[in-house]
Each structure stands twice: as structure tokens, then as C-alpha cells.
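Below is one such record:
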Amino acid sequence: MRTLVLLAVVPAVLAAAPLQVVRPIISQMEGGEASPPGFDHAPGEMLFFSCRVANFSKSSESKFHLAYSVQPLDPKGVPFTEVFKNDVSDDVSPQDKECMPKIATEIMIPPLAASGTYKIVIKVEDLVSKTNTELAVPFQVRGHEVEPSDTLTVRNFHFYRTEDDPVVLEKAAYKPGDGVWARFDITGFKYGDKNKVDVSYVTSVIAPSGKVLWTQPEPAVEQSESFYPKRYVPASMGITLQNNIKPGEYTIGVQVRDAAGSQNYEAKFTFTIE
């Protein structure tokens, strides 16, 4: 004997799609195409960011009301600009079924940013339905590498042929009458209030005999405050050798002072006159 089982047909209840941030775009120009995956952005670059909000709710008056924030973070999760906050509301007619409000802002990468994966975190609250959502949009930065230090120090000291020469000299050798140029990074300093930096340095040229031939007249000084702490202070020096200077191994002396951290540091780097 067979038993007939009657199944009750229950109407499917379709849940409303959740609030969502969609179509994120990071571009190098306003209204431009999205940067391709894996693209390396540069320190100091201005980014143009935009996205859309989907599946928001409408009030009985057919209005939407969204509050949102945009916060860029470095690879360690530290904000590198102040959070951008705003809200948007408008009427939505029955013909605006595809309406998706746009969020757009500009974000500057820190001028001395380190390499790594950064991200832009967008948070949206639907003030009608009392729901919220967020999305993290990653992007890559290729910066200047400076090894961190807990104490004041000089990194990446290199000699160059000219002031703006991008090529490091493999052998720091010059001739009488040449210009001697060097660039280096100062790091390991302490911060004051509002990430204040107070760093100064003096360079000098020392002969093989140990005699100081030249010292820069005034210290070069970096005194600044910033929302995002500076990783390092870029520094440079340059002199023109006298035509009658004798061949030999000479030295660049560097004296650095960190006033905020009450630190001092000295280093010497050699070059040859042939």
C-alpha cells in the first residue's frame, strides 16, 4: 500500500539584497580608468578614488539617506590622512531603479611612503534601514627603502656625479675640479607633539691628514609637523673640488642632531681623488 504525501507549497520569501559598496576605482586622474591590478603607485602621488553604493533603502517618501567615511591606511593599518566623512540624501523616483549613489574623494600618498600594500576602507551606514557595510580596497606603493632604526642614524649614503644624478657611483672617485655630490637618509629620530620633527645636520670634508678642509656654513634643518609621521629625513651635500687639490683618500663627515629626542650621531664616508 502506498502512502500519498501531500507537500504544502510555501511561497518563497526573497530577502532584500544587503547594503553593498561596489565598483571601487583607484585612478591617477579624475574620471580616469582604474589602475590595473598589481600597479605600483609612487610616494607623493595623488589618487582619485570613487565607488558606488548599492541596495540602499528608501523611506516612505521615496528618499534615501547614507552616511559614509573613507579612510586610507598604510601596510601596518595606520591612517596616513584624516578620515573623510560625508552624507548624501536624495529622492528616488520609480524610474531610478538602477540608482547607485557615488562616493568620490582624492587621497595623497605620503611623500616618504614605504613600499607595501596599502588600503582604502569605505564604511557606509544606511540611515533609513539602520544597516551598515564596509569594503577595503587594496593598492600597491613602491617607495624608497630606508631600514628603520630605534636610534638616530644615517642610511643609504651614496656618492653621485652631479646634483640630480639618479645613478649611484659604484666607485666614489673624482678628479680635481669635479663636483662631489652625496645624498643620504636620516632616521631613528624621535617625534614631538603632532609628529613634530626637529633634525639638523652638518657635513664637512676631511683631508687624508685629518685636517678639516671645509664645513658647511650653517646646519641644514628639518623642522615640521605632519598628520602622518615621517619615516626619514632626506639629506644631501655638494662641493666643488679645487683644481690644485692633491690626490688621495678624503672623507665626508656627517654630524646629525635630533633636538626632539636629544640624540646626536656622527658618521664618516670616504671618496678618492685621483
